[in-house]
Amino acid sequence: MGSQENEGVYPQVMKNTSYSQIIRKYGVRLKKRLGQHFMTDPKLLSAIAATMVPADDWVAVEVGAGLGTLTKQLCSRARWVYALEIDKELEPAVSDNLACFSNLTWIWGDALKFDLSGQTLRQTYPAAPLVLCGNVPYYVTSEIVYSALVGRPAWNRLAFVVQDELGRRMAEPPGSREFGRLSLWCQYRAKVKVERKIPKGAFLPPPKVDSCLVTMEVYDEFPLNEEEELVLDEISRKAFSQRRKTLLNSLAPLFGSKRKLFELGDEHGVDLSKRPEDLTIDEYVTLARAATPHILPDLQA
């Protein structure tokens, strides 16, 4: 199998576990291009699932379900689990692993084509607590989180196993060099907590870096309305794409002139001589609200 590594397939160096036996039985080829790293320790999986799904009335959507190793534990705890997985070649192994669960809907396809805001699911479960969760492939983590947060989320909680560095950036406070657009949106929408570190040896095959479990308890209300959040999204995109510039310089094109932007910031007490990582969440909220009459018409054109 070593020659397959150049073809984007991990060499199958397996320990004597039930999942390894399933992988061998069905000839599963773990694909690098899909970032496939599966957790197999039942105790670890059980602990992670217990954090993701705190009670049996929760409905869970799992992104990147893989072989179903985490799915199995989620099904043991949740009212219902919707598992999203893009690699249909795993279907025979998944069927073997999860055939006994009656509270599972397995969906083959790209998670980014699913409604990750949770609004569609909320129509089916108007009163149930909802969680978006999973052991998310590293290459698509940021896009998954943005898709879940930038639109109005219906989730009560998000909980992901992610690359350790990324997870800590999600929770990093303003004023830090690591504070970025992802940090801003995570903390605007939710209370973010790094729950535990997960060593790379906990995965099959092991990735090059450690991971962590991050939870986000989504707030019941948000300070901005949906139109103002469109402006916040545009401001944050512009600011953090040019993070070495001051906000006055990076955002001026949205307002037509630096003078107009400076006067707006001065009127509302927002220091635009700062770089984007140095503005607090409240200051971003103030700026977005004040900027909406100036920017929104162009965004909606």
Any overview of this molecule?
The chain has about 300 residues and is an alpha/beta fold. It folds into two domains: about 1-220, Rossmann fold, CATH 3.40.50; about 225-300, rRNA adenine dimethylase, C-terminal domain (Helicase, Ruva Protein, domain 3, Orthogonal Bundle). The chain contains twelve helices and nine strands. Helix 10 (about 245-255) packs across helix 11 (about 260-270).
Topology-level CATH name of the largest domain: Rossmann fold
Contiguous helical run count: 12
Biggest sheet architecture: 7 strands, mixed
Helix content: 40-55%
Name the poorly predicted regions: 1-17
User: What is the structural class?
Assistant: alpha/beta
Dominant shape: elongated
- Round the mean pLDDT to the nearest integer and report it: 89
CATH architecture of the largest domain: 3-Layer(aba) Sandwich
Strand order of the largest sheet: 4-3-2-5-6-9-7
Taken together, the total number of domains comes to 2
Gap from first CA to last CA: 54 Å
Record the SSE blueprint.
Blueprint lengths: L17 H9 L11 E2 L2 H11 L6 E5 L5 H7 L4 E6 L5 H8 L5 E5 L10 H6 L5 E6 L5 H9 L7 E7 H8 L9 H9 E9 L4 E2 L6 E8 L7 H16 L5 H9 L2 H11 L12 H20 L1
Parallel strand pairs: 2-3, 2-5, 3-4, 5-6
Antiparallel strand pairs: 1-8, 6-9, 7-9
List keywords for this structure.
single chain; 301 residues; alpha/beta; Rossmann fold; Helicase, Ruva Protein, domain 3; 2 domains; two-stranded antiparallel sheet; 9 strands; 17% strand
